[in-house]
From TrEMBL:
<dbReference type="InterPro" id="IPR020846">
    <property type="entry name" value="MFS_dom"/>
</dbReference>
<feature type="transmembrane region" description="Helical">
    <location>
        <begin position="397"/>
        <end position="421"/>
    </location>
</feature>
<dbReference type="Pfam" id="PF01306">
    <property type="entry name" value="LacY_symp"/>
</dbReference>
<dbReference type="GO" id="GO:0030395">
    <property type="term" value="F:lactose binding"/>
</dbReference>
<feature type="transmembrane region" description="Helical">
    <location>
        <begin position="123"/>
        <end position="144"/>
    </location>
</feature>
<feature type="transmembrane region" description="Helical">
    <location>
        <begin position="338"/>
        <end position="359"/>
    </location>
</feature>
<protein>
    <submittedName>
        <fullName>Lactose permease</fullName>
    </submittedName>
</protein>
<feature type="domain" description="Major facilitator superfamily (MFS) profile">
    <location>
        <begin position="26"/>
        <end position="426"/>
    </location>
</feature>
<keyword id="KW-0997">Cell inner membrane</keyword>
<feature type="transmembrane region" description="Helical">
    <location>
        <begin position="64"/>
        <end position="83"/>
    </location>
</feature>
<feature type="transmembrane region" description="Helical">
    <location>
        <begin position="27"/>
        <end position="52"/>
    </location>
</feature>
<keyword id="KW-0812">Transmembrane</keyword>
<keyword id="KW-0472">Membrane</keyword>
<dbReference type="InterPro" id="IPR036259">
    <property type="entry name" value="MFS_trans_sf"/>
</dbReference>
<feature type="transmembrane region" description="Helical">
    <location>
        <begin position="95"/>
        <end position="117"/>
    </location>
</feature>
<feature type="transmembrane region" description="Helical">
    <location>
        <begin position="281"/>
        <end position="305"/>
    </location>
</feature>
<dbReference type="GO" id="GO:0015528">
    <property type="term" value="F:lactose:proton symporter activity"/>
</dbReference>
Length: 442
């Protein structure tokens, strides 16, 4: 069986819309806005959830780990359904609208539902909170990424260029979130509700291609723009693909541990940054700088990945992750912990751009959302589910530093296996993009 299953039109030799043309397109800014306000919610939650659970809800590290495990388990269960539904929907917004509605209730949920449940029973609270947050975050993010990646291809944008709005949102949310936290930690969640309302407005007005439009070939099976048939056979063929199996293994042990490592790093940082008045405010400022750097790296990353190939982009991501995890284990002064955190500015663009390009180059483009949901999000969710609880308990049992050493060993092992299984994508074109001329004439 070969790895190259593209049944959509190959567009080798047809350039995507240039950066300047993208900046003139209202759709570019609209999709960028979708990324911005969704990832504002994501960053507020991911930066402040652990310290909020520890300080405001009074939860133990083990139960905080359980929250993240439940988030991942629910996401794991939803991914194949979300992927299949989104591939069937094509460019329709129904599923993304559901995620936005869930996000809009994040403020009321934490104010009126979560805290009373936790005061009754921490484990029950962890389960309920994990289920809800999965709908908004770990399960919801796949819908946002898949919808926006497909819309970007349909309009000839480099995915990395429009995705940098998510990085800008992360930087903004981290900085503003630090001040919100200092005034009242509970307002973090109301800021998320506000972002979700703006996200809903942008989703309502975004224009997506219809059958017959030039960009509709981003999801069609042929040049006619006919609605693609998404069936079980295509999915089964994907699951038997050696490269896809290797890709899943890599995401299980690297993308998952990227998240698990960051889940409680703010707590670890605060333990060592004892010379500053408020470690959480300092940490939010560090994350702000990190994500600004991430946005800058995101601009140039598509060019690097096009040169070295998406497979090697993923391997490089794993190498940087190992350096960051082991560095945090052995060198723990405040300045170096800041440096280790800032390395994430390289990791995230490497991972995101490489994941999307590997999927669209190596597998059937008709089921790109399914490939993304299963290969990336579902595999990652399985890893987060297992590792969040295990390493959450490990933090309590043997400490953060020793746990980080074990994490580093796991990343090295799964990367070695994946390198053997995954075939190279070098020389294979990005499918589904329309030419600049088509976009202008549409």
């Amino acid at each position: 069986m070969t790895d190259h299953h593209h049944t959509a039109v190959e567009v080798e030799g047809r350039p995507t819309t240039g950066a300047r043309a993208s900046l003139r397109s209202p759709v570019f800014w609209n999709v960028g806005g979708l990324f911005f306000f969704y990832f504002a919610i994501w960053q507020l939650a991911m930066t402040f959830l652990s310290p909020w659970l520890a300080e405001e809800a009074g939860m133990s590290s083990g139960n905080i780990g359980l929250v993240f495990s439940v988030i991942a388990l629910v996401a794991f269960c939803l991914q194949p359904f979300y992927g299949y539904i989104q591939d069937r929907l094509g460019f329709r917004k129904n599923l993304l609208a559901f995620v936005v509605v869930c996000a809009a209730f994040i403020g009321p949920f934490f104010a009126f539902v979560f805290l009373p449940i936790v005061s009754f029973n921490e484990v029950v609270g962890a389960v309920v909170g994990g289920i809800y947050l999965s709908l908004v975050l770990n399960a919801g993010v796949g819908v946002v990424e898949a919808f926006n990646e497909r819309t970007s291809r349909a309009n000839g944008f480099e995915y990395g260029h429009v995705r940098l709005f998510g990085s800008l949102a992360g930087a903004t949310a981290s900085l503003v979130g630090g001040f919100i936290w200092a005034s009242d930690p509970n307002n973090i969640w109301w800021a998320g509700t506000f972002s979700a309302l703006l996200l809903g407005v942008l989703l309502f007005v975004v224009r997506t291609p219809r059958p017959g439009d030039p960009g509709y070939t981003a999801i069609s099976a042929d040049a006619s723009g006919a609605t693609p048939k998404v069936d079980g056979g295509a999915v089964r063929s994907l699951l038997k693909n050696r490269s896809f199996v290797g890709f899943m293994i890599l995401m299980f042990g690297t993308a998952a541990l990227y998240d698990v490592f960051d889940q409680q790093f703010a707590i670890y940082f605060a333990q060592h940054a004892t010379e500053v008045a408020d470690p959480q405010v300092l940490f939010s400022q560090v994350v702000f700088v990190q994500i600004l750097l991430e946005a800058a790296v995101m601009v140039v990353m598509p060019f690097l990945i096009n040169k070295i190939g998406a497979k090697w982009g993923l391997i490089l991501f794993a190498i940087v992750l190992v350096v960051r995890v082991l560095g945090s284990a052995f060198i723990v002064d405040t300045e170096m912990l800041i440096v280790w955190r800032l390395l994430a500015a390289i990791e995230m663009p490497l991972m995101l751009i490489s994941v999307m390009k590997y999927i669209t180059r190596m597998f059937d483009v008709r089921i790109s959302a399914t490939a993304y949901m299963i290969g990336f999000n579902m595999a990652k969710a399985a890893g987060v589910f297992i590792f969040s609880w295990v390493f959450g308990r490990s933090y309590d049992a043997i400490g953060f530093s020793s746990t980080y050493v074990v994490m580093g060993v796991v990343v090295v092992a799964v990367t070695a296996v994946a390198m053997v299984l995954m075939r190279s994508d070098r020389g294979r074109p990005d499918p589904g993009a329309v030419s600049a001329e088509q976009t202008v004439n549409a």
